[in-house]
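Weekly puzzle thread! Below is a chain. First person to post its structure in token form gets bragging rights.
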Amino acid sequence: MKKLLYITVNSKPENLSASKTVGRSFVNKFIEKYPEFQLEELDLYNEHIPRLEYEYFESRNCIVNEEATSKLPEKEQKEVHKIVELCNQFIEADVYVIAAPIWSLSFPAPLKEYIDCIVQAHKTITFPEKGEKPEGLLNDKSRTVVYVQSSGGNIAWMMRPIFNKGLDYIEDIMKFIGINQFERLLVDGTGTTEEEKRTAIEKAKEKIDGIIEKIDVKESMLV
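Winning reply:
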């Protein structure tokens, strides 16, 4: 069964979060159009995301094997297993919807901790030969990332490289691991009043159908 993994990154409840509100609308419309997709949800503010300690790795970006894991203290074993679980969950999905606000020109810290867990050698990337650049492994089938981002202001496109570094980073890291289709669903201009926020949310929702139409939902496609 094909899977949609919905990842939220905001400490606010959904009814107070512009990114989560639009993200939910997107997910609901997508599942309505493609009911064959199984929906999985991951709230990075409620889910435990391990910090990556050196004991968890046998080499660069490579988690220790089961035998080495069994020799770690019980707490560390659980952390390693959680990292592997998060990575496997990500690999199994076909469509990813990530909903996050702009924070400090980027995004909330839990998203970076999560990304560090899923960028793993032999799972999402590979190092072909010594000295060669790593290659993404998630080009084995059609995959799409939809990044739902809310921001208080309207950031002009020419200023995005300066004020919106997180957006470009997420697109770059997804392409780095082999996911080439990346769609931006921006909830700009949420402002300081409820009216401004509602207007921004409604404008963003108007873009949902067009983005869904772009998503390739075919079965696995070897590259």
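Puzzle host: Confirmed. Bonus trivia for everyone else. The CA atoms of residues 174 and 180 lie 7 Å apart.
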